[in-house]
Design brief:
Elements (H helix, E strand, L loop, with lengths): L2 H23 L4 H12 L10 H15 L1 H21 L5 E4 L1 H4 L8 E5 L5 H9 L5 E9 L2 E12 L2 E7 L9 E2 L10 E2 H10 L1
Helix pairs in contact: 1-2, 1-3, 4-7
Length: 200
C-alpha cells in the first residue's frame, strides 16, 4: 500500500470513528470528535484528519444504518420546534441553519436560527417584551467578503436550546461564512423547513 493510500484509509477510519462518537455520545464539536477518533485509531498526525464534510457523510451513513427510527423521530421534533420558533419571529425574517437543517442533529443538538430584521435592536426588545429569558454573546462571521461581529441570543423553547444570530436585513443578499476560506452557510426559510418537516 502506498503512503497516500495508507493516509486515505486512516482518514476514512477516523471519519467513521468520529461519526460514531457524534452519533452515540452526542458530541457536536467536529474538532473534538476528530481528536478522540484519531487517538482511538492510533493516528496523531494532523494531516491524516478528515475534513468536516467527510465526517458529515459518515455520520449520515451511520445513522441510516444504526439509528434510523430514533434519529428520524428526534429530527422531526427539532424541526417542529424550529418551525414554531420561526413562526413566532416571522417579522424578523428567520432562516434555519446548522445540523437541524442538514439532518445531522445529534442527541444534544441545539437549533440555529439566523434573523435579518430591519432593526437589530428590535429582536432583544421582542424577547424582553415577552419575558423570554436569554443569554447574549457575539460571534464573528464573514458576510460577502467583510468580517462582521454580530449578536447571538440563546433562548430555550420546549426544552431545546435555540441560538439566534442577528444580522442586518441587507446581509440577506450576501453569502455568509464562518471564515474567509469556509463554505457558504446553508440556510432555509420557514416554507422550506415546513417541507422538510413533512418529508421527515
Amino acid at each position: 500500500m502506498s503512503r497516500d493510500s495508507g493516509r486515505n484509509v486512516t482518514r476514512g477510519r477516523i471519519a467513521h470513528l468520529a461519526a460514531r462518537l457524534m452519533a452515540e455520545d452526542g458530541i457536536e464539536d467536529f474538532a473534538l470528535a476528530k481528536r478522540k477518533a484519531a487517538r482511538q485509531a492510533g493516528a496523531s498526525e494532523t494531516r491524516d484528519l478528515p475534513a468536516n464534510e467527510e465526517i458529515e457523510v459518515a455520520l449520515k451513513l451511520y445513522r441510516q444504518i444504526h439509528q434510523p427510527d430514533a434519529h428520524r423521530a428526534q429530527l422531526r421534533a427539532l424541526r417542529r420546534t424550529a418551525v414554531q420558533a420561526m413562526r413566532e419571529m416571522i417579522r424578523f425574517n428567520p432562516y434555519l441553519t446548522g445540523t437541524v437543517l442538514n439532518g445531522n442533529a445529534g442527541k444534544y443538538a441545539d437549533i440555529n436560527l439566523q434573523l435579518f430584521p430591519e432593526d437589530a435592536k428590535a429582536v432583544e426588545l421582542f424577547l424582553i417584551d415577552r419575558e423570554i429569558p436569554y443569554r447574549v454573546a457575539q460571534t464573528r462571521l464573514v458576510a460577502g467578503q467583510e468580517l462582521r461581529t454580530v449578536p447571538v441570543f440563546t433562548i430555550h423553547h420546549d426544552g431545546v436550546e435555540i441560538e439566534i444570530t442577528v444580522f442586518s436585513s441587507q446581509d440577506l443578499r450576501l453569502p455568509l461564512r464562518s471564515s474567509i476560506e469556509g463554505k457558504v452557510i446553508e440556510r432555509a426559510k420557514i416554507e422550506q423547513v415546513e417541507e422538510l418537516l413533512a418529508q421527515t
